[in-house]
């Protein structure tokens, strides 16, 4: 029987993580042996002590500083032994459909390098897990863009980001619930640590596809995701990381050079500041 290595990167989300671990041990995969690895990015909320005390079966890797999501995933991978590796967010709850359908799909689909399942929130509403490889136009019509209110652009955006109704090949998969062949993950170079948080999953998907494999979405595999549970406490910082990661993505794939990179970075900072100001004004208005 093959081994499934589940890698969870945590940062100050102890309660969510403990619920996640409980659900995994309550619903382990039936078609693979379970190896569970938690990489903690220097949490200050007692995460490490709680895992050591209550979950001796977990391979715990405590970092002395917050190295980011991509680096945490790579560290976890170096401690793994499974043929398949599943990157899983700490703020999720799994069930009996969460693992085996993904494993079975990779077993039966030779051209699949990676596969993601569907995410829903506590009310059963879909949570985005399908990613696109962004273009400049996608950034301009994104939900946080200053021109996103235009109805015509909103329709284009929603069509681009629509979640497939059935099994489908996709451009990229979200790193919070992503199953990858271990050999392929190492061969394409693992996650790029220049992306501290966000966009590393898109970059990985690009390189998997460049290696000749496809990324699939499988709706029959499902988890409950407390969306933003691991980032809500640090929302402004998270949005900043997202902006910087997008800049680095375009720098990597669009080969930005001076002075284009300076112009693009200025646009990135301006867009973040506009979001920050708008967000603060909305919060004041709600009081």
Task: Describe what you observe in this structure.
- Strands 1, 2, 3, 4, 5, 6, 7, 9, 11 and 12 form a 10-stranded mixed beta sheet that branches.
- The chain has a single domain (3-230), classed as Spore Coat Polysaccharide Biosynthesis Protein SpsA, Chain A (Alpha-Beta Complex), CATH 3.90.550.10.
- It has helices spanning 14-26, 47-54, 69-78, 100-108, 136-140, 151-160, 182-187, 200-210, 235-253, 260-286; strands spanning 3-10, 33-41, 59-63, 84-88, 92-94, 112-120, 126-127, 130-131, 168-170, 172-173, 177-181, 214-225.
- The mean pLDDT is 90.
- It has 287 residues and is an alpha/beta fold.
Features:
287 residues, alpha/beta, Spore Coat Polysaccharide Biosynthesis Protein SpsA, Chain A, two-stranded antiparallel sheet, 10 helices, 41% helix
Termini separation (Å)? Answer: 57 Å
Number of strands: 12
Low-confidence stretches: none
How confident is the prediction overall: mean pLDDT? 90
Work out the radius of gyration. Answer: 19 Å
Helix and strand content put the structural class at alpha/beta
- Give the full name of the CATH homologous superfamily: Spore Coat Polysaccharide Biosynthesis Protein SpsA, Chain A
Beta-strand portion reads 15-25%
Q: What share of residues is helical?
A: 40-55%
Remind me, CATH topology?
Answer: Spore Coat Polysaccharide Biosynthesis Protein SpsA, Chain A
The largest pleated sheet is described as: 10 strands, mixed
Overall tally of domains? 1
CATH A-level architecture: Alpha-Beta Complex
What is the H/E string?
EHEHEHEEHEEEHHEEEHHEHH
CATH top level assignment: Alpha Beta
The number of distinct helices, counting runs of at least 4 residues, comes to 10
Characterize the overall form: globular
């Amino acid at each position: 029987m093959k081994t499934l290595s589940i890698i969870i990167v945590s940062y100050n989300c102890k309660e969510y993580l403990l619920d996640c671990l409980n659900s995994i041990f309550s619903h382990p995969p039936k078609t693979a042996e379970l190896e569970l690895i938690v990489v903690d990015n220097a949490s200050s909320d007692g995460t490490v002590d709680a895992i050591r005390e209550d979950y001796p079966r977990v391979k715990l890797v405590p970092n002395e500083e917050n190295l980011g999501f991509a680096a945490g995933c790579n560290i976890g991978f170096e401690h793994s032994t499974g043929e398949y590796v599943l990157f899983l967010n700490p703020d999720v709850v799994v069930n009996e459909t969460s693992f085996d359908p993904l494993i079975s799909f990779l077993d039966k689909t030779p051209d699949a390098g990676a596969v993601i399942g569907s995410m829903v929130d506590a009310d059963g509403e879909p949570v985005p897990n399908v990613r696109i490889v962004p273009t400049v136009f996608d950034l301009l019509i994104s939900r946080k863009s200053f021109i996103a209110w235009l109805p015509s652009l909103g329709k284009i955006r929603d069509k681009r980001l629509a979640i497939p109704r059935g099994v489908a090949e996709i451009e990229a998969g979200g790193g919070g619930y992503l199953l990858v062949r271990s050999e392929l993950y190492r061969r394409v170079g693992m996650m790029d640590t220049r992306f501290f948080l966000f966009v590393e999953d898109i970059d990985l998907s690009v390189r998997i596809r460049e290696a000749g494999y496809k990324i699939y979405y499988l709706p029959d595999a499902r988890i409950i995701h407390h969306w933003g549970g691991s980032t809500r406490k640090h929302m402004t910082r998270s949005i900043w990381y997202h902006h910087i990661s997008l800049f680095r993505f375009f720098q990597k794939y669009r080969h930005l050079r001076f002075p284009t990179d300076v112009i693009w970075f200025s646009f990135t900072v301006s867009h973040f500041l506009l979001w920050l100001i708008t967000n603060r004004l909305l919060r004041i208005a709600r009081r």
